[in-house]
């Protein structure tokens, strides 16, 4: 897989994912998604999503490989887009465990999930990160104890079909439930995707 910079990126899929894709006849679809959707930098719509976000979910892992996920919140725009390939995240006062940024210091790898419950929409970001304690970084983020700089390795959207509307409490019409018929998503009818759907 070639990235925007012309470098070859590691596959999005490990052996487990590949085995399941084979079982469910979704290998061609997964390959197409990786080829067409995954980028090594943010697109403009993703920049806008990050810049207006008041929260996101941060995934890290420790040296033993145990994953962790944490809700991170602030005022809209608290995550700064340095450029289309770099983000900066303030780390505010918390419970004193420093699990997330401690994991960043240990492994240097992060994942981020941004969700827009109103549009709806979501995007995932995978990257390498480092923790900054230098004053020049802290000056850019009032009240931050540290700043996490993320270099984006992969950014890709996720289908928003199952995102509920938190403002109204309305459950997504696409959520499967007894006695309810769910419509096929529109994208499955587009030629570039229809030709690689399971069973085609």
How would you describe what is shown here?
- The chain is of the alpha+beta class and 200 residues long.
- The chain has six helices and seven strands; from the N terminus they run αααββββαββαβα.
- A seven-stranded antiparallel β-sheet has the order 2-1-5-6-7-4-3, with helices on one face.
- It is globular.
- The two termini are 24 Å apart.
- The model is unreliable at 1-7 (pLDDT under 50).
What are the defining features of this structure?
about 200 residues, alpha+beta, seven-stranded antiparallel beta sheet, 6 helices
Topology (SSEs and partners):
Blueprint: H1 15-23, H2 27-36, H3 44-52, E1 55-61, E2 67-73, E3 80-83, E4 86-91, H4 99-107, E5 109-116, E6 121-132, H5 135-138, E7 146-158, H6 191-194
Antiparallel strand pairs: 1-2, 1-5, 3-4, 4-7, 5-6, 6-7
Largest sheet: 7 strands, antiparallel
Radius of gyration: 19 Å
Mean pLDDT value = 92
How far from one another are the termini?
24 Å
Helical content stands at 10-25%
Q: In DSSP terms, counting alpha (H) and pi (I) runs of 4 or more, how many helices?
A: 6
Give the strand order of the largest sheet, numbering strands 1, 2, ... along the chain.
Answer: 2-1-5-6-7-4-3
Shape: globular
What is the succession of H and E elements? HHHEEEEHEEHEH
Strand content: 25-35%
- Can you tell me the residue ranges where pLDDT is under 50 for at least 5 consecutive residues? 1-7
Question: Number of DSSP strands?
Answer: 7
Structural class: alpha+beta
């Amino acid at each position: 897989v070639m990235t925007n910079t012309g470098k070859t990126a590691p596959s999005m899929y490990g052996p487990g994912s590949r085995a399941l894709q084979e079982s469910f006849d979704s290998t061609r679809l997964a390959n197409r998604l990786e080829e067409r959707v995954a980028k090594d930098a943010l697109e403009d719509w993703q920049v806008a999503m990050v810049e207006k976000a008041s929260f996101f979910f941060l995934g890290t892992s420790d040296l033993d490989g145990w994953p962790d996920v944490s809700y991170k919140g602030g005022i809209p725009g608290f995550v700064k887009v340095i450029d289309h390939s770099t983000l900066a995240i303030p780390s505010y006062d918390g419970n004193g465990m420093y699990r997330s940024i401690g994991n960043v210091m240990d492994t240097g790898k992060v994942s981020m999930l941004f969700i827009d419950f109103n549009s709806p929409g979501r995007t995932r970001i995978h990257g390498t990160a480092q923790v900054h304690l230098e004053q020049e970084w802290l000056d850019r983020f009032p009240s931050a104890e540290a700043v996490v700089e993320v270099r984006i390795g992969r950014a890709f959207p996720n289908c928003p079909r199952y995102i509920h509307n938190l403002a109204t409490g309305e459950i997504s019409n696409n959520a499967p439930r007894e006695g309810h018929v769910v419509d096929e998503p529109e994208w499955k009818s587009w030629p570039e995707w229809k030709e690689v759907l399971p069973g085609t």
